[in-house]
Fold these 3 entries.
Entry 1:
Amino acid sequence: MLAVIDTFGQELPAACQSTCEEAWVIFDSFLTKYGDNYDVCERVSRVLRLGLNFFGASSKLVLPSVLNRMAGAFVATGFASYLWIGGKIIGRFGNEPDPALRTAFDQLFESVSKKLVNMLGGTPPSQIPDGEFKFVAPYT
């Protein structure tokens, strides 16, 4: 449904202002419980990407929490979609001056970088299973 609607526009109606936060609580709990399942990761990542577009600037309040969850889930599983969502958030909101968001970006970078170094330490990228971070050409 989010793919069809795309975006609500510049600002959500007053009655819908807390919808993003309420939806994130559900997704956060769901990822806590099932985030180590690759199929769940893929589907939730798609919904989060579409949700970022739908909620737009209204999503900024939950982004530090989302980034924290994406970093933790990537560190725990190595699933590239968690890293991808972090990148989508940075791509869209990377110039925001919000200190909480900037701190979340820094924490994401630090934890993801450590995980990648561990994953690549002694293992060629082409030998990392598809369910984990996978380089694409020309690196393979």
Entry 2:
Amino acid sequence: MNSKIFYVIIPLLVISTGTVFADEIMTVGINDKNYDEGDTITIAGKINTIIGETPVIIQIIHNDTFVYFAQKEIARDGSFTDIIHAGGNLWKSEGVYTVRSSYGNNAIIDLEFNYFPKSDSIEKTDNFEVSAGKY
């Protein structure tokens, strides 16, 4: 009976440690939660435990399609930044996109944002006068 409890508790400890471990190694943020096509997405973070020359991997994913990929160098203070313009050939549809930042073998952080292509966004224009004339 005691061995069954042991086999249940150990996996729970491993799962919770993995999550905490990622948070201890790296923090990441984005500058907004909603982007229209052409907007600037700023991804910034900090690595607390630098591993040699290992870069941070940044991916943007939508519906299992990778729409962006980069390897970013880490500054001496552990910080990193990536600036992306929302849109392009792979950014075709509106929806929730995921920024996945990974570092080393154990640190992965996912952040989500909403993306709206121009074809889906509503543009507001000023009113203008139309006069009826002879045809």
Entry 3:
Amino acid sequence: MTLEIWFRTEVPQKGRVMIYKVHNGGGRNYQWGIYLTGDSADVYAYVVRPNDEVGFVGENGDYKDGNWHFLAGTYDGETLKCYIDGNIVTQDWSGEIRTGDGPVVIGTWANNFFAGALDEARISNVALTEEQLKSDYENGYVAVSPAGKLSTTWAKIKAQ
């Protein structure tokens, strides 16, 4: 799987989840995600095994500088990876991860809302390669082409 998001903040964040999957049932109440913590100095990607064991990998930096940052996490069944602004950190961590029917949440963790801006959240059911994520970081990604869509056409009409 791959989780991707752009974020910007000037506020020290403590445990602000960008994207995570809620686990309904016993044990830990989460399944996988990417988050910002440590007063906006640490980013992490994580996955949880069915036995509640957590695998995580992250990078230190200063992410409360008011600039846009690209954060992504991937898991391919053997390696957990965290990408931040084109840099990669990996952790060998193989095995099955927890599944369930809980919701996916963006920008909050139990009423701890992200203070800043989030954009272009994307969840994929495949682990994108480093080259694919580098392209997303450098070129952006658009899930749907806006050409010929009603909102694009309406914007053109209103602009005239």
